[in-house]
Design goal:
There is one protein chain. This protein is of the alpha+beta class and about 240 residues long. The protein has helices at about 15-30, 65-75, 105-110, 110-125, 130-140, 150-155, 165-190, 200-205, 220-230, 230-240, and strands at about 10, 60, 80-85, 95, 100-105. A hairpin with a 3-residue loop joins strand 4 and strand 5. The protein is globular and about 45 Å long.
């Protein structure tokens, strides 16, 4: 796990999401690139925590591609900062609170659809307020009152040296990663015309195994592929729409 508040590198998938997708295709086509997609899931109904903007050492500002901006709009976001990392030390891509996506040099060399998946994945973490969800769940699991702190960093500090707490957070992290995988794939499908085969499935097929340890935040690559395959047809339909 990376130093907090960075945790995401690359809530459970809603059971009704596929049905919502089918209902939302037509209106999604009309929405264009300036409105949140009707199929995009809503964020958790929890308090907003305050986050201190973290310095990304050695990072440079990165001008977003038009397709990244389209994905952000479909996710209901309009204030994302993009940075280029100096190296691969934290993986190919990650995000940190409240609104920053960081891409490593290796990610920027990926085929367009694989890169779109990585960016979409991180945008989902931000749009779904997974950082706030982490802070909220840590307060609950630690037996703290809801008003114990509204500082995200203070709440995340409860994890310091507490492997048992990290272990209890692991199911939440796995659910968040699955949500970021499937929703991020669909953002890439509608905004970038990327099939699931060309985006997430292609990306995972070229990477080694990760995750699956105690207190892990990710499934293995093969588990992620198997989880995503049922969304192949949904991605294909979305890719036929305007962003």
């Amino acid at each position: 796990m990376d130093a907090m508040p960075v945790r995401y590198s690359s809530s459970a998938a809603r059971g009704c999401a596929v049905l919502c997708l089918v209902c939302g295709f037509a209106s999604g086509a009309l929405a264009g690139g300036l409105h949140k997609a009707p199929w995009f899931p809503g964020p958790p109904n929890i308090d907003r925590f305050s986050w201190t903007a973290e310095a990304c050492e050695g990072c440079d500002a990165l001008t977003p591609r038009s397709e990244w901006m389209a994905m952000a709009a479909l996710a209901g976001l309009d204030d994302i900062s993009y940075l280029r990392a100096p190296d691969e030390s934290k993986g190919p891509a990650w995000s940190y609170a409240p609104n920053v996506v960081v891409l490593a040099p290796s990610a920027l060399k990926l085929p367009d659809c694989q890169l779109a998946f990585l960016v979409g994945h991180e945008l989902v973490h931000i749009a779904q307020r997974h950082f706030d969800e982490d802070a909220h769940d840590l307060l609950v699991l630690s037996g703290k009152s809801a008003n114990w702190t509204l500082s995200g960093e203070t709440a995340m500090g409860l994890l310091d040296g507490d492997f048992s707490l990290a272990l209890r957070m692991s199911p939440t992290w796995l659910q968040q990663e699955r949500e970021a995988d499937w929703v991020g794939s669909l953002l890439a499908a509608q905004a970038c015309k990327c099939s699931l085969e060309k985006s997430a499935l292609s990306y995972f097929s070229g990477n080694g195994q990760s995750g699956a340890g105690l207190a892990s935040s990710h499934d293995t690559e093969s588990e992620r592929v198997n989880f995503l395959k049922p969304f192949t047809d949904s991605a294909r339909k979305l890719s036929s729409l305007m962003p």
